[in-house]
Write a structure and sequence with these properties.
heterodimer, A: two-stranded antiparallel ribbon, 14 helices, globular, B: mainly alpha, Formate dehydrogenase/DMSO reductase fold, two-stranded antiparallel ribbon, 13 helices, 3% strand
């Protein structure tokens, strides 16, 4: 199937495939690192064993997810060069330093302190261990900050000029880093990561509550996750709306595709809830729409005119079908998260938070939905940027590396096979760990510990325990 | 006055060298992994690097990301030229990287992840060696882009450097384990280290002799002043490091073999640097040509001078925290 495709299509598929797999892990580990820092802090402050149990439980899950994020991330840092070398040559002077800062201020920080966070509590003591845990969390946030600055610059380039070699060269670093869409994208993504983690933690909590309503760590994690949804889901909807308005200002064609507005509406555009984009005829078939609502949302006025894709040259139009649907998936899930948060709040007020089995079942169902929403959101913004890599300035077709199509096809097939195998196995191990209650000794291992004859290691009786206090 | 691009070439070289010696020993442990005689030895070997491998590999990202940042043109020609070895290295690193966690999460599939750890490590080392050999042989550049085919990297010379790197990394791994273990496992590694050291020195000799024939310019650099001074000094320094390595092994020292093996790598790296200079991509792309504009170099340099020393401090601290002989019972799994 790959032998008829051009090198460009193959390279785009490969980038889309590898980056989609990659984003899943940071989306989880950004939130989980912060959650671990909070859990460890609460344990040190309250000395409530439940927090320590939860810390040790999620720590092991974090280690697996983080490992998958690292290895899939190394691939990304080289793929700009292997497959998009012209893009690298042209944007390197602007984007390269930002990525270098990501490595220096985030990756090293995470990697340097991860070992201490995972293995070092006994060796360094509580305070330094807490510091290491906080540094890992801080590193994940720094990483998000830099890479989103890079991505945002590709969406809304600023602070550059062009040199005689056709390279983008920096003029004003402040404008480059804090380019117009960056603050919105950063807030939207970090909140998305927190929501994703809250949904996973809530789902796992719900699962163990279904099995044992009195399970103390399950109650604690479920409660914390639901509070998180109550606070963050509304914030995210607000942030998403602000991001959308920013996109309308800087990348109107993307919003037209998201909204499915093929035609301009001089006196108030309808909000198309659902429908089937028909790219040939340039219209939305079977559209269910609310008159003038799109103008109200985007322009804050019923009768405000909104331009459609008919104002954009065909060769500059993003693929409407994909953007239209991925946007709806994301928004739909966002409101489902809001609904779950609201429901949990109501049950909490009624004192039924730990008893409502349908709430727990729904939480399990929503467990993976953060990932779906994150992917849908990224598809919306990245496909919506097409056909450009640097919006309006550098076309995707002009960014490609001079690598022969068979080489790209071979690497794409290899990535697909390896990723499904490796990350499939990893996901299986993650789910198996989550399936066990917090406090399980030697979580995820079915074998007996390695041990010298006659010696019972301390971990056997007190796994992960810092002070010989009974932990699990 | 030093050119900014020259300073940056030094920083990138430092990052790559740091990567080679740090990930070198932990890839080496992967290469030696099948020689473990028991589950306990396997656990010891893996636990000796579990807290630090991730930091070691970050230097690879630093090398790639740094190249993108300050020598975008070099990045843009090297990566497509070495497309296959780079992709295979990345895939191999995935296999060995996840093995650190996966092997502790399953009993039935443990042999699979052990094989992934070994296979990924040896493949990554081999591909890095091939990439090095292909780079030494030179990369065709025309009109700011790679101009060769997608199999150009595969030659007898690049296979030779590939095998050389595998053997060299295994030596680093063996000497690291001499430092970090005791008893039968340490004895076993001491025995291997003899052979691996002999092999590494042999490869250094062969590759050094063959390199000048890859491109006449290398010949000129080494056999004309000022390069010829180094041509006299380098073999002496290599012999000194080799002597220190073998005498450390004979005396049963813990740390000396590892440090000597490291210094062998540093010397080889310096030798490659001399061969390349002033090019960043042989045969024709110079450091100055490939460099990003000064505005980029300055901006990245400010953070680098502050952050790299800090990174070295906390990386050293992490090594310090996990110092001493490995207790196979320890770990968080």
């Amino acid at each position: 199937m790959f032998d008829t495709m051009t090198a460009e299509t193959l390279a785009r598929m490969q980038f889309a495939f590898t980056v989609s797999f990659h984003i899943i892990f940071p989306a989880f580990s950004i939130g989980l690192a912060s959650y671990l820092a909070v859990l460890n802090g609460l344990w040190l402050k309250t000395r409530d064993e439940t927090y320590l149990t939860l810390f040790n439980y999620w720590k092991k899950i974090f280690a697996v997810a983080f490992g998958m994020g690292v290895v899939s991330g190394i691939v990304m840092s080289y793929q700009f060069g292997t497959n998009w070398s012209v893009f690298s040559d042209k944007t390197g002077p602007v984007l390269g330093p930002l990525m270098a800062y990501e490595v220096l201020s985030a990756f090293f920080l995470e990697a340097g302190f991860l070992g201490i966070m995972l293995f070092g509590r006994e060796r360094v003591g509580d305070k330094l261990h807490m510091f290491a845990t906080a540094m890992v969390a801080f590193g994940t946030l720094m990483s998000a900050t830099w890479i989103l600055s890079v991505n945002s610059w590709m969406q809304t380039p600023a602070g550059y000029s062009m040199n005689e070699l056709g390279q983008f060269v920096p003029e004003d670093w402040w404008q480059i880093v804090f380019n117009p869409s960056f603050p919105y994208r950063l807030v939207h993504m970090v909140l998305a990561a927190y929501l994703t983690t809250a949904l996973v933690v809530g789902g796992v909590g719900g699962l163990h509550l279904l099995r044992n309503r009195e399970d103390a760590p399950a109650r604690r994690m479920f409660s914390m996750a639901m509070w998180m949804l109550v606070v963050v889901a509304p914030l995210q909807i607000f942030a998403g709306d602000a991001h959308g308005l920013n996109t309308l200002e800087h990348q109107p064609a993307k919003v037209m595709a998201m909204e499915g507005h093929y035609d301009s509406h001089p006196d108030g555009a309808p909000l198309i809830l659902f429908g089937i984009p028909n790219p040939e005829e340039k219209r939305i078939d079977y559209a269910i729409e609310i008159p003038k609502l799109s103008s109200l949302i985007l322009k804050h006025h019923w009768d405000a005119p909104l331009a459609g894709l008919d104002t954009i040259p065909d060769e500059d139009e993003p693929p409407v079908m994909i953007v239209f649907w991925s946007f709806r998936v994301m928004v739909g899930l966002g409101f489902a998260m809001l609904g779950l948060g609201a429901w949990s709040l109501w049950r909490r007020i009624k004192g039924k938070l730990y008893a409502d089995r349908w709430l727990h079942r729904t939480a399990i169902l929503m467990g993976p939905m953060g990932f779906v929403a994150v992917l849908a959101g990224w598809i919306t913004t990245e496909v919506g940027r097409q056909p450009f890599t640097v919006y309006g300035l550098l076309r995707t077709s002009d960014s490609l590396a001079p690598v022969a199509a068979p080489a790209v096809a071979a690497s794409l097939i290899a990535f697909i096979i390896v990723y499904f195998f490796i990350f499939g196995a990893g996901t299986f191990y993650l789910l198996r760990m989550m399936n066990k209650p917090a406090g399980t000794v030697r979580l995820g291992l079915r074998d007996a510990p390695v041990r010298a004859a006659g010696i019972t290691p301390i971990q056997e009786t007190h796994p992960d325990d810092a002070h010989g206090v009974k932990g699990d | 006055m030093f050119e900014l691009s020259f300073i940056w070439a030094g920083i990138i070289a430092f990052a790559v060298l740091t990567y080679v010696i740090l990930d070198g020993f932990d890839l080496g442990i992967g290469i030696l992994f099948p020689t473990a005689k028991s589950e306990r030895d396997k656990a010891t070997m893996m636990n000796s690097i579990a807290p630090i491998w991730d930091g070691n590999e970050t230097w690879l990202v630093m090398g790639g990301g740094g190249l993108f940042a300050v020598f975008p043109l070099a990045y843009a020609v090297i990566m497509p030229a070495l497309y296959m070895p780079i992709i295979l290295m990345l895939l191999a690193l995935i296999f060995r990287g996840v093995a650190f966690e996966y092997r502790w999460r399953t009993e039935r599939w443990k042999p699979v992840w052990d094989a992934a750890f070994f296979g990924g490590s040896i493949m990554a080392a081999f591909m890095q060696g091939i990439a090095l050999g292909a780079l030494v042989q030179g990369i065709k550049v025309a009109d700011r882009a790679y101009a060769g085919g997608w199999w150009d990297w595969l030659t007898a010379f690049s296979i030779l450097t590939g095998v050389a790197v595998v053997v060299g990394y295994a030596l680093l791994g063996a000497t690291w384990l001499i430092l970090k273990t005791e008893g039968p496992l340490q004895n076993q590694m001491q025995r291997y280290a003899w052979w691996l050291a002999a092999g590494t020195l042999g490869f250094i000799g062969v590759v050094s002799i063959m390199t000048p024939f890859q491109d006449p310019i290398y010949f000129q650099r080494w056999f004309n002043l000022p390069g010829s001074i180094l041509s006299v000094l380098m073999p002496g320094a290599v012999l000194a490091a080799a002597f220190s390595l073998f005498s450390g092994l004979s005396a049963g020292k813990d740390g000396q073999p590892f440090l000597s093996a490291l210094s062998l790598f540093v010397l080889c790296f310096v030798g490659i640097g001399i061969s390349f200079y002033p090019n960043i991509v042989p045969p024709g792309l110079t450091i100055a040509e490939a460099a990003a504009p000064d505005a980029s170099l300055k901006f990245a340099l400010v953070g680098t001078v502050v952050l790299v020393p800090l990174i070295l401090v906390y990386t050293a601290y992490a090594y310090w925290v996990f110092r001493g002989k490995i207790d196979p019972e320890e770990g968080y799994h």
